[in-house]
Write a structure and sequence with these properties.
By secondary structure, the protein is α+β, with helices and mostly antiparallel strands. 38% of the residues lie in helices and 15% in strands. Strand 3 and strand 4 form a beta hairpin. It is globular, with a radius of gyration of 16 Å.
Length: 203
């Protein structure tokens, strides 16, 4: 696993330096004083404090909330419309950003540091909440390195490279497993066009 310093160096030299819109892919960090108010594994805190995550990058992801202190889901998605019992279901999730392709919030679970995607259409459906999340990564360091791998690895080697970083991330139904299917089937130039970061959200 890469250290925060190693990831930062590689992201800047292998990704940011080649971006046509480098401002979009710059790394956002979380100040130490804001980390003091959340309960996260030390590895996640260190990575967010020292390296951070890109403001936006392929595949259609944005992490702007990292620079805003990791708000709760109900503070960004339909604010003011949540009942206390609805908020309780998501009380352990801190918002990292969003999957702009689907409009789903990307969160880190305070209890174990896992990164998940929450199906936005199921946020207010109590019957569907238990099945409304998709596993993304085992933690923030794994997420960062998978982003780097996705940007720097050729399609034939992508799945194996992601598996070496975080095996569950390419398991059945996991986020990265779904992302690798089209990349194996689409030509490089077309894929590059499809995975440019989007700059919008549903909320």
């Amino acid at each position: 696993m890469l250290t925060p310093a190693q990831f930062t160096l590689r992201w800047q030299s292998e990704v940011l330096a080649r971006e046509s819109l480098p401002e979009d892919a710059k790394l956002l960090t979380l100040p130490a004083q804001q980390l003091a108010s959340v309960r996260l594994p030390e590895a996640a805190c260190r990575f967010l404090r020292e390296a951070g995550l890109p403001k936006a990058c392929a595949p259609f992801l944005s992490f702007e909330e990292v620079g805003e202190g990791l708000p709760r889901i109900w503070e960004r998605y339909s604010p003011g419309q949540w009942h206390p019992e609805e908020r309780a279901v998501f009380e352990h999730y801190l918002l990292l950003g969003s999957d702009d392709d689907a409009g789903n919030p990307l969160c880190i679970d305070e209890r174990d540091g896992r990164v998940i995607s929450v199906e936005h259409e199921l946020l207010f459906d109590p019957r569907a909440r238990t099945s409304g999340t998709t596993f993304v990564n085992s933690g923030i360091p794994e997420l960062a390195e998978c982003l780097l791998v996705f940007h720097t690895t050729s399609p034939p080697a992508l799945v194996d490279a992601l598996r070496r970083v975080d095996p569950p991330a390419v398991g059945p139904g996991a986020f990265w497993s779904c992302q690798t299917i089209p990349r194996r089937e689409i030509g490089g130039k077309v894929w590059a066009a499809l995975t440019r970061p989007l700059r919008w959200k549903f909320w």
